[in-house]
Input
Amino acid sequence: MHIGRFGPPRKIRALAVGCAIAVGAAGAVASRAVAQQQQNFDNVQEDIVHVRDGVYMLVGAGGNTTVMAGDDGVLVVDTQFAPLSTKILNAIRSISDKPIRYIVNTHMHADHIGGNEAISKAGRTRAGGNVVGDLGAAATATAAIIAHENVLLRLSMAAPGQPQVPAAAWPTETFATRKQEMRFNGEAVQIIHEPHAHTDGDSLVFFRRSDVVSTGDLFTTVMYPYIDEANGGTINGYIDALNAILDITIASNVNEGGTMVIPGHGRLSDEQDVIEYRDMTTIVRDRIKEYVKRGMTLEQVKAARPTLDFDPRYGTPNGFWTPAQFVEVIYKEMKEAQGPARPQPKNQKSSRKGQTKGGGQ
Ligand SMILES: [Zn+2]
Output
């Protein structure tokens, strides 16, 4: 039975139990979503980039969409914003006229799930005769929406004062394990959960034969890593996720080739791009960690400009995620990792010794 592919389907009502855990869902993200909904999408164009074999990247507004098409049908990773659904469907239809079978969500942010409802309704779940017989026509009415279970947990709770994401846009098949695998269009597709990175529900999608990985917001080319703390993100988890992408990618010796990387935002990339991004993120984290060890305050760390040399590339001082916000979230985490504040010793050397041993208590 196809539904069993991703483990027992976790019914939405069962999730009400877990919802209390998800309290604190990001006001920041939700308000961004509202702002984006007011944005005018009329002039947005969906650019189709052929990545390799049956895999394409759609660049419109919001997160990039990945389309994988073949004889079995179409699998879509992330769906941008709701008002773009028709444009996304038109782009998919220009690639393939086969049914849309699956949507995979890399995480729960509004700019990656907006088209879930419309695109899922335009598609249909891959189902055999028996399943149709058992479940009725509804079994094939929509494409399945697959995500880590934390995505469903977060979506099923509206952040205070924010509109609820409609249930029709929620994942229909969730998994709680580290990795889910399926075979589709003759290739192995791996959906790999990376815990506590950008959020607590991030997945990479690896198309093994095509040698393409779709990262969601675990990698972008346009901004510093966005650590969505309110939704379970952490800097160390983010660096782990970048290393996990690099475990998958293999560079090529020739000019073109090697594993292609579709980022959550920005341009089509390869292993070298991810290495640079991982190194930048690690360097900034380690600088701030060292400043915290020295007992510097947040204001002092900000004044030391630990991102200075990377700001021309990734700094968006007036954007949604500024260098200062990036620094602040790392500072907070490094401070917490260090343990409760201790009396400031006069001699720095003994302070360092004490910290390595005692760990704060
Ligand atoms: Zn995101």
In short: Confidence is low (pLDDT under 50) at residues 1-31, 127-135, 348-361. The first strand starts at residue 47 and ends at 52.
